[in-house]
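Before the break, one more example. Copy the sequence into your notebook; we will annotate it together after we see the structure.
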Amino acid sequence: MSCQFPRERIDATIAFHGHSCPGLAIGIRAAELALRELDNPTDSEIVAVVETDMCGVDAIQFLTGATMGKGNLIHRDHGKMAFSFFRRESGRGFRALLNPAARGGMDDEMAELMRRSGDGTATDEDRRRMAELRSGLQRRFMELPLDEMFVVTPVEKGAPRPPKILQSLACDHCGEKTMESRTRRFAGATLCIPCFQLVEQKI
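Here is what the structure looks like once it is written out:
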């Protein structure tokens, strides 16, 4: 079954992100899955944990209302096309990993065309084929049933805890106020992360 968001909602998501692409389509479908599985939670009830920083994260933010500023959009830099969603009050949640089969076997050809594009050897025909593949992949992502799009596993440990307001400490090197949990101690001094990296650089 194809994407159930109304066309105007999809268009608004594209406008928010700035362009339409396969990555954004993945995020649109992940948001659709989250809202379906968690019974349409409000933007303060849902928690989204994203394991990538790709285009689809914008779709998840726009369509679910989870944001970094509210503390319910959490980025874990794992480089995986995986998204976990929770309903805060119940703790119910799941992790959705993009099913490799969802790509329809286009990866090898796309990877080669992207390599040529990156090193400047792509021909006009290569660029035409790349655009064709991207369009086809995007259309496929928007039309696949959600159960074929993602591999879904329950998450039993519950939602990440809500953010806490912590004391800010002045860095002893630059003087800038820094959240206590982000400071480091070195040679008896309290340092922000950039200043700590300057004195503790291994290479």
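The mean pLDDT is 93. Strands lie at 46-50, 73-75, 82-87, 93-98, 150-154, 168-170, 177-179, 184-186, 189-191. Try to locate both features in your own notes.
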